[in-house]
Write a structure and sequence with these properties.
single chain; mainly alpha; Na+/H+ antiporter like fold; globular
């Protein structure tokens, strides 16, 4: 599904612009499906949650300021690869690898809420529009990010309280988010390709550096997440929580609020994280076959 979706985005990038407006709605639906997976009584902030959130936020800022003296574009691309929340499909992959689905689904919730709260402030500082004041830019970003990430949570809680059958029906169809994600991937890859095609040839070295930076960040997040998770009782959930990112949301945020060329970072991250996941699933299956 991954290569097919990416190939469709590449081949039909000229036409993707006609349906690009669907991206926020698709992200909304994916988050709603994920949030319905977690019951309200599971929303507990544990050491596991705090540790991963610290790496996600503080790590993103450290990466940004470390790369800023060399290139603001590369700094933004690496920043969004760390700051963006956990992928909506991460709990599914975590379950396949033997990790805790409820624990990662809970972290996914807090990860998204953290981004909703901090994104307006950080994006206003990092990608401030010269035509807007800080307050105007902050307000403009808040009105788009808050509803997109927090409204699905509110709707999921309302379903659980007043329409439990609807809530259970959505929760039992988690696989739908994977196929919806594939459609979203076609759109964001198509948009990214359209942007890259319009860039002059002298931007190619910078785009290659962005792809390289996202590879380093991807490997580092899987490794750090595994180390943190091992100390707190679940190395698989730790690795997937930090390493597997919602790249659909990341590309959309980069194209919308940062320098658009920064979207090359999360676009390349799509390939890196899925290569790592494929290898993990392959070796797990091989070990089980041998045993």
């Amino acid at each position: 599904m991954l290569p097919i979706a990416m190939l469709c985005g590449v081949l039909f990038h000229d036409s993707i612009g006609k349906i690009a407006f669907l991206s926020p709605y698709i992200i909304f639906i994916m988050l709603l499906i994920t949030y319905c997976r977690v019951s309200a009584n599971e929303f507990r902030v544990t050491k596991f949650i705090w540790a991963l959130l610290a790496v996600q936020v503080l790590g993103a800022l450290c990466v940004y300021f470390a790369l800023l003296p060399f290139s603001s574009d590369i700094a933004q691309g690496a920043f969004i690869c760390v700051f963006c929340p956990t992928a909506t499909a991460a709990p599914v992959i975590t379950g396949m690898l033997g990790g805790s689905i409820p624990r990662l689904a809970t972290y996914s919730l807090f990860s998204n809420v953290t981004v909703a709260i901090l994104a307006p402030l950080l994006f206003t500082y990092i990608g401030t529009d010269a035509d807007l004041t800080f307050v105007e830019s902050f307000f403009a970003i808040s009105t788009r990010v808050f509803p997109l990430i927090l409204a699905p949570l509110a709707l999921a809680l309302l379903f659980q309280a007043f329409m439990p059958r609807v809530h259970d029906a959505i929760a039992s169809r988690q696989s739908l988010s994977f196929y919806i994600w594939a459609v979203a991937l076609i759109i964001v890859v198509g948009n990214a390709v359209s942007f890259i095609m319009k860039e002059p040839a002298d931007k190619i070295p910078e785009m290659l550096l962005l792809a390289l930076a996202s590879l380093v960040v991807c490997c580092a997040q899987f490794w750090i997440g595994r180390r943190v998770g091992a100390r707190l009782g679940d190395k698989i959930s730790g690795a997937q929580g930090l390493g597997q990112k919602n790249t659909v949301l990341a590309i959309w945020m980069a194209l919308t609020y940062l320098n658009p060329i920064a979207s090359v970072g999360p676009a390349a991250y799509v390939a890196w994280q899925n290569t790592i996941n494929s290898m993990q699933l392959y070796f797990k299956t091989k070990r089980e076959t041998i045993s």
